[in-house]
Amino acid sequence: MTIDPDLARQVPFLTLAAIHIEGVENGPATDALQALVDATVVQTRAALKLEEISQLPAVAGWRKVLKALGTDPSRYRVSSERLLRRIVKGDDLPRVNLMVDLVNAWSVATGLPIGLYDADRLEGTAVSFGRGRVGERYLTLAGTELETQGKPVLRDAAGPCGSPLTDSARTATDGGTRRCLAVVFGPPLFDNEAFDRHLDLLCDWVGHFTTGRVVGRSRTGS
Questions:
Q1: What b/e string do you get for 189-210 counting C-beta neighbours within 10 Å, with b at 16 or more?
Q2: What are 23-71's pLDDT values in tens digits?
Q3: What would you measure as the largest C-alpha separation in the chain, in angstroms?
Q4: What is the pTM (predicted TM-score) of this model?
Q5: Within a 10 A sphere around the Cβ of 179, how many other Cβ atoms?
Q6: Total Cβ atoms within 10 A of residue 109
Q7: pLDDT digit string, tens, across residues 79-124
Q8: Helices within the chain (DSSP H only)
Q9: Among 98, 106, 125, 182, which is most exposed with the fewest C-beta within 10 angstroms?
């Protein structure tokens, strides 16, 4: 995974991590994972007020990035901020599948946006993170088209496949997913020790709550 030079020049000191997971049996969330999700929701709702969410280090950092790229961060929110706002407003996390439910709970617990991709649906051998382009768009998980201009975007050999805002329907996980790539999006100057602790937690959760095993872990910065 690489960060495109043009994005690195405009938004330096980003930190991204790639977690490669194999051996997944990706059905509905287990009872143990659902208990974790429920506890995360309860704890988050008790600890946060709506106006505090935008001040969390991970969220605030990405809001600054979006603004620097020319996007209104109150109109286009990163995925972790949207999940946190959903919970604090009184809604539960959506139930999608085992892996999605796990990374959503992790994102709420850490404040960091994360992308989850079916590794067998990704094209090519590498992904890159860069600036959106004029006229470039992709179909999101919600079934709407997102224009990438003014936003940071993750690309494989076939084009955009996700971003810190929302992932692509083209590379989404489903019940048949057996190999995943999880990409953690760290905003500029995010605390390195905290970032590593959050990655450790994600890997621990994968090992404890799924049949998957982490077979690769790497990070890159601009």
A1: ebeeeebeebbeebbebbeebb
A2: 999 999 999 999 999 999 999 999 999 999 999 999 999 999 999 999 9
A3: 45
A4: 0.97
A5: 19
A6: 18
A7: 999 999 999 999 999 999 999 999 999 999 999 999 999 999 999 9
A8: 5-10, 31-47, 57-68, 79-88, 98-110, 192-209
A9: 125
